[in-house]
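Hi all, long-time lurker, first post. I run a small reading group and we've been trying to get comfortable going from sequence to structure in the token notation. Rather than ask abstract questions, I figured I'd post a concrete chain and ask someone more experienced to write out its structure so we can walk through it together at our next meeting. Sequence below, copied exactly:
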Amino acid sequence: MNNVTENAENLPMVEAPERIEGTRTLRQRLPRRVAGLAIAGLVGALAMGGLQVAAAPAASAATYSASSVHKAEKAATTAKKKATKAAKTAKTAKSKLNKAKKAKASALKVDTSTHSAANAAQAKYAALNNAFSAQSTGLATTANDVAVAKAAYVAATNTYKVAHVKYSAAAKAATKANTTYKKATKAAKSAKSKASKLVAKAKKARTAFTKTPAGTRELAKTMAAKRGWTGKQWAALDYIMKKESGWRINAVGGGGAYGLAQAQPGSKMASAGKDWRTNPATQIKWAFGYIHSRYGTPAKAQQHSMVTGWY
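-- Answer (accepted) --
Happy to help. Here is the structure in token form:
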């Protein structure tokens, strides 16, 4: 695994010979094409014992920092919570609307039946009253019959009035519930749309940031923790990747070495994924597998690197 130059455009695809153990001279370790670069394009620095020559990260990726990404993700999380709450409110409003509709329908039935009963009582009273007024003494209809019919009519009318008041209230409540439901549905839709946009924005920011050295390192730290490589092991891993590539996924070294771990040739990483050229997670996965299979732990790989200059 050589020290590197960052230039992913002309990655050799032919198989390079396996690394020969032992240190190499600076002339051997730098790819020939470095000689053609302008001095202004070189960033020479002794980093963890090796010379690094790297190009600046892509402009789109450079606009994202850890803090801006975390801020975007926090905003997305908050928006998702609000969207969930709004959806719950809309669901509750719909439930209340359904209940209000049922109450309105029930009240309407009572209103209709009591209205019919009041009309029937009114008709009966009118008929008996007319009959009583027109009859001669001694006929069947009496004043008492008329009085009873009138009382029934008055009672039926009062029952209808009460029922009608209840129906009016139920109808008003249903209208209000419908308005509330519409507003809640609109708010939920808006919150969902906003959340989707913020989630997409955060995802874009995270993807871009992950491809920067800082972002790749952050991702690797998370993935390493899942393997139990924390503390001393993470420090060793950080040392190796800084030395090999400066945490750049497009770092190119001599002999076809490529990526974070300077796989030689880079195509070896295809075993971890077809997107090995551009996906930090794929390169990290391959690097972890390589270190585990060859050394067992990052600390042992670091020891070997410090003694030999490669791992």
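A couple of things your group might point at:
Confidence is low (pLDDT under 50) at residues 2-62.
The two ends are 6 Å apart (CA to CA).
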